[in-house]
Predict the structure.
Amino acid sequence: MTSKFKNLYYFFYRFFSEIRYIHRKIYYFYQKRIRGFSDRDLWSLDHTFAKFIIPRLKKFKENLYGFPLCFIEEIDPDYWDHENFIKRTDDQQYEIDTKIKNIWISKIDSMIRAFELIVSDNADLDYSDLEMEFLEGGRINIKKDEQKEKIRNSLISSRDKEIEIGLNNFSKHFRSLWD
């Protein structure tokens, strides 16, 4: 089947598939209007939350004016010392503020990245090496390339660590997400 006909086939397949479930779409639309969310939003609540949070965190980062004071101690332990505070020049103060703001931006970036990885759900990974063979009795035999499987698993593991770091930052600094 040529790609032109294949695209046409998938267009009609999706179109008629959507028509078949139109009653559900109407019902979910009704639920969203009545209570603010539908049962469909509850199927994967982590994705629903992540999709809600990502654009807001991006806009928060874009409109960022300040930073939480909890980072000051990391940069300059004597920041609040009266003598140091008075002796500090405007350039020194600006340098400290810039360092603190950069730390805060990196924390926000890790939060955004974590939520984006949650939404992507590893859909961008290459699974083309997997071959399925259907056996008698409903069993499935999966053949895979061990090298690609190793690479894929290490990538998934590193993404899971990124998600963990971002969500830890989100929970730790949740009350600092105001400006």
